[in-house]
């Protein structure tokens, strides 16, 4: 039999076919494997394919055999099983700091680790469009810069921003560059944070990674190592970070403009923003009304007020009264 130009790649293409088209519930016969190789312009005989399957087994690939009316072959144990990849997909979907575009890209790559049949099962689990995701597409590059700063013991610079009621970036410090010594990345409450030493204030601070842009690596060595080493990370995250069961309702709230970043962070950039006057704006959003929600509103103080529905307004009033009652007789 004349050899084709891809003949030397036969074993690799055989493995590719098995990985992509077989799993515990789907096998391929020798005839189907030969047909699959022919699609890559590779000619093969039954004995040579059988020998190749044995070679893959010897190499450690879990090529399994199933016998019904005919003998079929499939990949059994993989580096990642379907349940493990579903867990990773759930983590990517739940991550607010990963943009919607990057979420689909990552899930596509994770699906490539499965057979086409299992990938379809996993894809049915994917629900991304209606989730609040980061609006900063450069977050991957931000993380790369931060890791470079940490591994090379170098300070980094960046600009830091927040959103105004018009959903526009507003840079802090007039757009001036921040210069910090990066030490760790923290994933907490669905967001990614950089933990870094600020030489100006001589303290460890945290910064939202998706609120950073124009990152750069400097030639200056990091500072604050002693202070970072003395930090209790678990206690720090409990102290600096930390919202829902109940009935979902459309809740209207009036915020002071200075809470635009907080409100957009919580409910997403697509949440409708309506100007009330020069100093306030209104958001009407779906909320699972619960004590945790009231606690979140309460924590923002007098700069936010629930205005509808009446049940939520009454619930907030009752919540405040219950809290106030705890302090009436202290003295």
Describe it for me?
This protein has 331 residues and is of the alpha+beta class. The chain has four domains: 7-75, Winged helix-like DNA-binding domain superfamily/Winged helix DNA-binding domain (Arc Repressor Mutant, subunit A, Orthogonal Bundle); 82-123, no CATH class; 139-240, Roll (SH3 type barrels); 247-325, Alpha-Beta Plaits, CATH 3.30.70. It contains twelve helices and 13 strands. The strands form three sheets. Strands 4, 5, 6, 7, 8 and 9 form a six-stranded antiparallel β-sheet that branches. It has a four-stranded antiparallel β-sheet with strand order 11-12-10-13. Strands 1-3-2 form a three-stranded antiparallel β-sheet. A hairpin with a 3-residue loop joins strand 2 (63-67) and strand 3.
